[in-house]
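Curious: can you check?
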Amino acid sequence: MPKQKGLIKLKGTLNGVSYYQLNGVDISRRAVGPSQERIQTDPAFVNVKHNNQEFGGASNLSKTIRQGLGETAKTFKDSYMASRLTAVCSKIIQKGSGTHGQREAHINNNPEALIGFQLNNNQPFNQIFTVKPRVTSHNNRNNITITIPKISEKHLIKAPKNATHVQFTAALCMVSKTQWQSQHQSYQPVCPEYHGLGISQQTVPLLCKIEHTNIQIQLETQLTNQNPTSIAITVWLGIQFLRLQDTQCIPVPSVKAMQCIAVL
């Protein structure tokens, strides 16, 4: 335990270091927060306990979305995507019913918090491609169609100079409502069979210099009608550029983006 040196002896906490006297000796040590046991049992820390429980629910919700997007997310994400998504999921839980610490986590309670979320915050989707896609669902959300009305050079405002083609990736992730379960001391999904299921589909490479109209991407969810209000379907659309090399289209990694475009 380090001793304080010098003529001036401090008492209190400064920059995360506590200064105090022990048995007549002036001591300095890094400040330590309350133990987990104290947070769980001491009424003085009840708000901390409740915040921790809901943060755990937000982390689980974020992890489920990332798992559902799978390799697609890894293609488009930035280094801070997971923490940014967890912050969004915390906002979703804050809109849930129930008491503080046990509010339900359901994307449908606050879909606006997720719509427009960028997997790469440094390359927003709508700053690369300016046409707004349309999302429609059919057969009780069993079939999802993403329609891109028009693609031309003027809509591809950040296309790399060496890019010859553009390709779109559509993805969806189904997320169940989750609720606090005292017996598990954690948030658990209401519909675990669908929780985190994901699907993705790509367009064929499209020439950048040619105008394309009504490009459609079809995704099937195989969702039953048993729990329509307990499942949120998050819909995502990504864009990346390719260059033709010999007979193959090679990704140009410098410009690519994906965002959540709808919650159904």
Remarks:
- The radius of gyration is 25 Å.
- The chain has a mean pLDDT of 87.
- The first helix runs from residue 36 to 41.
- The chain is about 20% helix and 35% strand.
